[in-house]
Specification:
The chain contains six helices and seven strands. By secondary structure, it is an alpha/beta fold. The structure holds S-adenosylmethionine.
Length: 196
């Protein structure tokens, strides 16, 4: 992986040149499975970008943290949260260098970010019965959407393997099976719970 300043510059450039009008949306793994969220707790949107997940979590009254290496993204998220009257703690942080500490979060959401060596830290960072919501792109996607670099693409069933120490509540990965005009085709999603 390239060093921090490379990653930060790359993502800052993307966020600075992207359209700023559209509201960031939560990933499907969270929006479609929000009924699994606890009523209270401390939660993290890891590599949050513009914070679509963090905003949903904060709207639900959860004590929300959002971390990303891009200061441009974090500034936008802070502005957006303030404009919606939402409380959240958004922080510029390189999660590879500074992963979450053990037993810190009741929920961790990760969408469209993959750094495999971080997975054990994510698992350790869950409280007893804590939940992870994970969604990112797969190798078997039917069209050129999302990253092309295989380092950032999940192989078949890989999320299941990465989080096999946890209780799997939900897994979805469809790839190119059947009618690719329908369904959830480009990514895999998983919700899993730490065994108390
Ligand atoms: C494809 S975006 C996804 C953003 C958001 N989670 C979403 O689903 O829209 C990947 C994000 O990872 C962030 N990122 C990349 N490397 C990082 C690192 N080492 N630490 C923290 N964030 C990082 C980027 O700044 C970018 O916001």
């Amino acid at each position: 992986m390239s060093d921090k300043s490379d990653q930060q510059s790359k993502w800052n450039l993307r966020y600075a040149s992207g359209a700023s009008g559209a509201l960031p949306r939560p990933a499907e793994v969270l929006s479609e499975n929000r009924h699994l969220l606890p009523k209270t707790g401390t939660v993290l949107d890891l590599a949050c970008g513009l914070g679509g997940n963090a905003l949903l979590l904060a709207q639900r009254g959860l004590q929300t943290h959002a971390w990303d290496i891009s200061n441009v993204a974090i500034e936008r998220l802070n502005d957006l949260a303030a404009s919606q009257g939402l409380l959240l703690d958004a922080e510029v942080r390189d999660v590879v260098r500074c992963p979450p500490s053990p037993n810190r979060f009741d929920v961790i959401v990760v969408s469209r970010f993959l750094h495999r060596p971080l997975v054990p830290d994510i698992i350790r960072a869950l409280s007893a019965s804590g939940l992870v919501f994970y969604q990112t792109f797969i190798e078997d996607k039917p069209a050129d959407v999302g990253p092309g670099n295989p380092e950032y693409l999940l192989s078949e069933n890989e999320l299941l393997q990465l989080f096999s120490a946890l209780r799997i509540l939900l897994y979805r990965e469809e790839g190119r099976v059947g009618d690719i005009a329908q369904g959830f085709r480009y990514e895999a999603m998983l919700v899993a719970q730490n065994r108390a």
